[in-house]
Amino acid sequence: xxxxxxxxxxxxxxxxxxxxxxxxxxxxxxxxxxxxxxxxxxxxxxxxxxxxxxxxxxxxxxxxxxxxxxxxxxxxxxxxxxxxxxxxxxxxxxxxxxxxxxxxxxxxxxxxxxxxxxxxxxxxxxxxxxxxxxxxxxxxxxxxxxxxxxxxxxxxxxxxxxxxxxxxxxxxxxxxxxxxxxxxxxxxxxxxxxxxxxxxxxxxxxxxxxxxxxxxxxxxxxxxxxxxxxxxxxxxxxxxxxxxxxxxxxxxxxxxxxxxxxxxxxxxxxxxxxxxxxxxxxxxxxxxxxxxxxxxxxxxxxxxxxxxxxxxxxxxxxxxxxxxxxxxxxxxxxxxxxxxxxx
Length: 343
Ligand SMILES: [Zn+2]
Ligand SMILES: [Zn+2]
Hints:
The chain has about 350 residues and is α+β, with helices and mostly antiparallel strands. It folds into three domains: about 25-130, no CATH class; about 130-240 and about 310-340, no CATH class; about 255-305, no CATH class. It is about 25% helix and about 30% strand. The chain is built from nine helices and 20 strands. The strands form four sheets. Strands 1, 2, 3, 4, 5, 6, 7, 8, 9, 10, 11 and 12 form a twelve-stranded mixed β-sheet that branches. It has a three-stranded antiparallel β-sheet with strand order 14-13-20. It has a three-stranded antiparallel β-sheet with strand order 16-18-17. Helix 2 packs across helix 3 and helix 3 (about 150-165) packs antiparallel against helix 8 (about 315-320). The chain is globular and about 60 Å long. Bound molecules: zinc ion (ZN) (2 copies).
């Protein structure tokens, strides 16, 4: 009898430890749409329990949440609510939830949901298990048909980024745009992105025994940048400029023209590029590798690469994998002087 009790206690303890280790990240989603209305709906046959105004709020078909500055309101009710609306699987765990901006977009997420008001719009945050977020990022960030080893390298980089890069926004850790990283829907089990996350579960990049928020971008133009080169202060991993054979042979070239007034103060730093991107759009200066010249009262930039060009180059990594490199070799190439370890 005593043995059975002890065995049961060990199982319970094991479950508790496993739950404590189950890390979560808070992702602000669909922020690009600056929504004033959000529709929340369950996935057919799966439980979805929401809470609003301090009490449970059952959602059978769907729930329309509207902005009622400075509060929010559930459509069809008179009372506006102070606090957030939260949703889960009715047991405090992750649910399958379809979140829509009416007339614009609809996405399915796996996690717990929070909707609140912020800056005169609705802020939607999905609290998801770390590994669900990793798989979702691999699916959204990777070039189509990227080989398995490239997806695994992306998974390790994304996991490191999520663990070490928290706190980029107030109230949530990361957004789902290029400002933080792309994240759309969780990939289905059996898909390449799902398998890449599962195959590298718990593996992270470390520099001097610390996990760091590994950066990655779409194509580097042939040579990756150090943080120093782009005017970013270095506390942890400084990054190293490495040659990228694929981008040298197949650079993504671009030419843009910017009004002289907008180009004033433009410097080859990531901050300067992002400032202009906020003003003129994300594609206004596609990368940090360019030359500039004045022409007819404007400034013409001619460059190569897409993204900041720091760390893993997604196109280059995919090419290395096509030529037989393992995910460890890809990571060692783009993140020299680091190690891949279980966190
Ligand atoms: Zn962000
Ligand atoms: Zn590259």
